[in-house]
Amino acid sequence: MEDDADLRDNYADVFRDQGYTIDTHVDRPSAEQAFEASLPDLAIIDIGLGREPEGGFALCQWLRQKSRSVPIIFLSARDSDLDIVSGLRMGADDYVTKDMSLPHLLARVAALFRRIEVLKNEPAIDPNKETVFGHLRLDEQRFKVAWQNQKVDLTLTEFWMVHALTLHPGHVKKRQQLMQEAHIYVDDATITSHIKRIRKKFIAVDPKFDCIDTVYGMGYRWTASDA
Hints:
The protein has 227 residues and is α+β, with helices and mostly antiparallel strands.
């Protein structure tokens, strides 16, 4: 979704050349109408859409309510920390700026599609199986998380990052490892923003939550202080 016709057509041509089937939309209402009929396999959204300076944020929220698993990337000229954090807070999986090279953008899109394939090809999971670690419960069948028996509303990307951190509590996970295990390809700043959002969501449920440590220069780890 891009309201500049020349840019929209340019991006569309690049993705079509890579074998993707592309639908483009100029504003939020036309995109929502199309998505009501059929959800996309992946959405790339600008923040400003048509006459709405932040229509992309509204579209992202609307689309995330429709599906927790559709990959969403913001592609915007706006590069402030506030915009990036806001985009991820709305439920986007990634946020890139328009000065990024097209090969880099294509690589990040391809990584999100690889995540879809990984999830499709994983062995069936026992629907009654939950991973329990202290106050944390991970339902790997429904991609749901609970802390102290209260739901924590994580996106799919956030779920996999928590899953990766809790596989080996106390062990430091480098940002590259988190990307691999969450099946995403983003920069370090985006990983940092995801971790901040995850912390805030747990703290909203439990103000005393402190189980995700930042190990400066290395990565992150899930501590056992909740056990």
